[in-house]
Amino acid sequence: MAAAVAVVAVGAVAAGFSFFRTPPVAASVPPLLTFQADGDTDARSLLTGLAERAGQQPGLGAGRFHYSRTRSWTFGTAAGTDGGTLAARVAETRLERWTAPDGSGFEKRHQDSVRPGGPPLVYEGPFPTPEVQPTVGPQNTVVSALPPVGEADAGEIERRLRADGVSRTAGEWFAVTAQVWSARSGDPATAQALARILADQSGITVAGTTTDRAGRPAVAIATRASGDQWFPKQRVYLLFDPATGFLTGAEDVALQADTDAIGAPVEVPATVRYQLWLGSGRTDTSGETPR
Question: Is residue 126 part of a domain?
């Protein structure tokens, strides 16, 4: 997650040159979402209703490629050669993907540098099939094991996901849900299966209604989750369109921060990652945007 940037400050002194350590910086994070306690307050009831609405939505249509468009923001740091932290902030990635039934495809990626003013990472090109480049981690393994988008009903998708996740915690199911939806966004059967599974998990609460970071109405659920070395305790959220039952966003809020590991102070609670699902469809060719 951390990006290394070679920056050295040099100052003249009587005996020659000395190196000054990069001064500490305060982390820059977006404001927390706010929620209103409107509507259904029981997570199981809410998710069951969302699953029913998702199953009533039209399919993605015809076309060889499944298209998805997302924006995500992830906390990272940029360090100087002296070990000091030059920047600590949430940086954006914009991604469009066209995925063929065999898992291969084409993507356009624009990833901002954590260091303000630093050059972005820009890539346009193919990505390999899972057989050529094996996926890593339980979430990605689950995605690659599912049938192609549009070729399975909600029951089949649910069965496969449940079989692989008997011992998952609610927090782990949130992570899997976000990963699966990123690969299959806009598919009613997938949305229905995910909501059904989440409805059966303990430890999930209804956060309330809100407006997501793209300005869309949403209803959110939340749970506690284990994080990483930087943010070991987190509260994670999934946001749904109340009209369609489709996911619109995901948020990770740090409840604890290891300042020594990060190299910069982070005042908690703090939003350290969020993702928006902005578009989906089918196309005949890669690089084509659905109409």
Answer: yes
**What count of residues does the chain have?**
291
Mark 98-111 as b/e (b = at least 16 C-beta within 10 Å).
Answer: bbeeebbbbbbbeb
* Dihedral sign of CA atoms 110, 30, 198, 279 in order: negative
- pLDDT, tens digit, 9 for 90 and up, residues 204-259: 999 999 999 999 999 999 999 998 999 999 999 999 999 999 999 999 999 999 99
Q: Which domain holds residue 228?
A: 3-283
Question: Could you give the CA distance from residue 61 to residue 54 in angstroms, rounded to a whole number?
Answer: 16
pLDDT at 81 over 70: no
Q: What is the largest CA-CA distance in the chain?
A: 77
Q: Is residue 98 part of a domain?
A: yes
Task: Give the pTM.
Answer: 0.87
For residue 288, being part of any structural domain is answered with no
Q: Is residue 289 part of a domain?
A: no
Tally of structural domains, the chain = 1
Indicate the burial class of 13 (C-beta count within 10 angstroms; 0-12, 13-18, 19 or more): exposed
Among candidate residues 176, 152, 150, the one with its CA nearest the CA of residue 162: 176
Euclidean distance between CA atoms 172 and 109, whole angstroms: 26
How far, in Å, CA of 116 to CA of 72, rounded?
17
- What is the mean predicted confidence (pLDDT) over 11-23? 40
Q: Cα–Cα distance between 258 and 235 in angstroms, integer? A: 16
Per 3-state DSSP, the chain is made up of helix, strand and coil in percentages (nearest 5) of 20, 35, 40
Closest listed residue to residue 234, CA positions, set 168, 181, 174, 167: 174
CB-neighbour burial class of residue 205 (10 A; exposed 0-12, middle 13-18, buried 19+)? middle
